[in-house]
Amino acid sequence: MNSLDERVYEVVKAIPRGKVTTYKAIAELLGVSPRAVARALKRNPRPIEVPCHRVIMSDRSLGGYAFGGPEVKRLLLLSEGVRFDEKGKVLEDFIVRDLRSIDKNLWVTSRNT
């Protein structure tokens, strides 16, 4: 596993239960591409400890989920209280777009590694 993967996992572990963030928000925080974030999450060896189901697309759609597909991702999010609109997109109220707002240390860590 590479250091980018571990940096992505640290950010994802900080996303609170009942909230989601986007691949783009993580990418911007870490200074990488959203695809690099997606690749790291696809390799996630600890899906319970690193809740990668809490990461969605910028358009509020679910995107993929290596551990059972988008329907499993949706069920996991529903079980945490995340709600969706009639088109199946996550409601804006559940999205954390500024990751610094959940853990001030993420910003420092991401820029120093």
Automatic annotation (TrEMBL):
Q: Does the keyword DNA repair apply?
A: yes
What molecular functions are annotated in GO for this chain? methylated-DNA-[protein]-cysteine S-methyltransferase activity
- Domain Methylated-DNA-[protein]-cysteine S-methyltransferase DNA binding spans what residues? 5-82
GO biological process per UniProt: DNA repair; methylation
Highest taxon in the source lineage:
Archaea
Pfam families per the record? DNA_binding_1 (PF01035)
Query: What keywords tag this UniProt record?
Result: DNA damage, DNA repair, Methyltransferase, Transferase
Catalytic activity, per the record? a 6-O-methyl-2'-deoxyguanosine in DNA + L-cysteinyl-[protein] = S-methyl-L-cysteinyl-[protein] + a 2'-deoxyguanosine in DNA; a 4-O-methyl-thymidine in DNA + L-cysteinyl-[protein] = a thymidine in DNA + S-methyl-L-cysteinyl-[protein]
The EC number(s) given in the record are: 2.1.1.63
Does this entry carry the keyword Methyltransferase? yes
Q: Which PANTHER family match?
A: METHYLATED-DNA--PROTEIN-CYSTEINE METHYLTRANSFERASE (PTHR10815)
Query: What is this protein called in UniProt?
Result: Methylated-DNA-protein-cysteine methyltransferase
- Biological source species: Acidilobus saccharovorans (strain DSM 16705 / JCM 18335 / VKM B-2471 / 345-15)
